[in-house]
Q: What sequence folds into this?
Protein backbone atom coordinates (compact mmCIF):
# COMPACT_ATOMS: atom_id res chain seq x y z
CA UNK A 1 0.00 0.00 0.00
CA UNK A 2 2.64 2.53 1.03
CA UNK A 3 4.81 1.81 -2.02
CA UNK A 4 1.97 3.09 -4.21
CA UNK A 5 1.60 6.36 -2.26
CA UNK A 6 5.20 7.30 -1.39
CA UNK A 7 7.28 7.98 -4.50
CA UNK A 8 10.61 9.18 -3.06
CA UNK A 9 12.09 11.34 -0.30
CA UNK A 10 13.07 14.97 -0.94
CA UNK A 11 16.77 15.46 -0.20
CA UNK A 12 17.62 19.17 -0.16
CA UNK A 13 19.59 21.49 2.13
CA UNK A 14 16.37 23.06 3.41
CA UNK A 15 14.92 19.68 4.32
CA UNK A 16 18.19 18.67 6.01
CA UNK A 17 17.84 21.71 8.28
CA UNK A 18 14.19 20.88 9.02
CA UNK A 19 15.16 17.28 9.86
CA UNK A 20 17.76 18.44 12.38
CA UNK A 21 15.86 21.32 13.98
CA UNK A 22 12.18 20.39 13.80
CA UNK A 23 12.13 16.62 13.09
CA UNK A 24 10.30 17.08 9.76
CA UNK A 25 10.76 14.96 6.65
CA UNK A 26 9.55 15.53 3.07
CA UNK A 27 8.41 12.99 0.50
CA UNK A 28 7.03 13.17 -3.03
CA UNK A 29 3.67 11.40 -3.02
CA UNK A 30 0.97 10.52 -5.54
CA UNK A 31 -1.13 13.53 -6.54
CA UNK A 32 -4.43 11.88 -5.59
CA UNK A 33 -3.26 10.80 -2.10
CA UNK A 34 -4.82 12.58 0.88
CA UNK A 35 -3.30 13.38 4.28
CA UNK A 36 -4.83 10.37 6.03
CA UNK A 37 -3.47 7.93 3.43
CA UNK A 38 -0.03 9.57 3.56
CA UNK A 39 0.04 9.35 7.37
CA UNK A 40 -0.88 5.64 7.35
CA UNK A 41 1.71 4.91 4.65
CA UNK A 42 4.54 6.64 6.54
CA UNK A 43 3.59 5.00 9.85
CA UNK A 44 3.40 1.53 8.31
CA UNK A 45 6.61 1.79 6.27
CA UNK A 46 8.91 3.41 8.83
CA UNK A 47 7.14 2.34 12.08
CA UNK A 48 7.04 5.88 13.54
CA UNK A 49 4.35 8.11 15.06
CA UNK A 50 3.30 10.98 12.77
CA UNK A 51 2.03 14.16 14.43
CA UNK A 52 1.14 16.25 11.38
CA UNK A 53 1.06 16.04 7.58
CA UNK A 54 1.29 19.16 5.42
CA UNK A 55 0.85 18.83 1.66
CA UNK A 56 1.96 21.05 -1.21
CA UNK A 57 0.55 20.64 -4.70
CA UNK A 58 2.93 22.02 -7.34
CA UNK A 59 1.85 22.50 -10.95
CA UNK A 60 4.60 21.92 -13.54
CA UNK A 61 6.01 24.85 -15.47
CA UNK A 62 5.70 25.30 -19.22
CA UNK A 63 9.17 25.52 -20.73
CA UNK A 64 10.48 26.48 -24.15
CA UNK A 65 13.59 24.85 -25.55
CA UNK A 66 15.69 25.00 -28.70
CA UNK A 67 16.90 21.72 -30.17
CA UNK A 68 19.39 21.29 -33.02
CA UNK A 69 18.45 18.36 -35.21
CA UNK A 70 20.20 17.54 -38.49
CA UNK A 71 21.69 21.03 -38.81
CA UNK A 72 18.31 22.71 -38.29
CA UNK A 73 17.24 24.59 -35.21
CA UNK A 74 13.83 23.57 -33.90
CA UNK A 75 12.02 25.58 -31.23
CA UNK A 76 9.64 23.46 -29.18
CA UNK A 77 7.68 23.67 -25.95
CA UNK A 78 7.26 21.22 -23.13
CA UNK A 79 5.82 20.90 -19.64
CA UNK A 80 7.40 19.66 -16.45
CA UNK A 81 5.29 17.16 -14.52
CA UNK A 82 2.90 18.12 -11.72
CA UNK A 83 3.78 16.74 -8.29
CA UNK A 84 2.64 16.68 -4.69
CA UNK A 85 4.99 17.00 -1.73
CA UNK A 86 4.17 15.97 1.84
CA UNK A 87 6.04 17.37 4.84
CA UNK A 88 5.77 14.95 7.76
CA UNK A 89 6.20 16.06 11.40
CA UNK A 90 7.25 13.25 13.74
CA UNK A 91 7.24 12.90 17.51
CA UNK A 92 10.39 14.16 19.21
CA UNK A 93 11.70 10.66 20.01
CA UNK A 94 11.24 9.28 16.44
CA UNK A 95 13.58 9.68 13.48
CA UNK A 96 13.81 8.27 9.96
CA UNK A 97 17.10 7.34 8.30
CA UNK A 98 16.17 8.20 4.72
CA UNK A 99 19.36 6.82 3.18
CA UNK A 100 18.72 3.34 4.59
CA UNK A 101 14.92 3.52 4.78
CA UNK A 102 14.91 2.69 8.49
CA UNK A 103 13.30 4.25 11.53
CA UNK A 104 14.76 4.58 15.01
CA UNK A 105 12.69 5.28 18.10
A:
Amino acid sequence: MYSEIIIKPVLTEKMALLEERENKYAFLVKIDANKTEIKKAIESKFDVKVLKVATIRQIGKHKQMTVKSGGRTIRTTGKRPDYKKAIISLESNSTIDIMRGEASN
Summary: The chain has one domain: 2-99. The beta strands are 6-9, 24-29, 50-58, 62-69, 72-79, 83-90, 95-97, 102-104. The helical segments are 2-5, 13-22, 35-46. The mean pLDDT is 90.
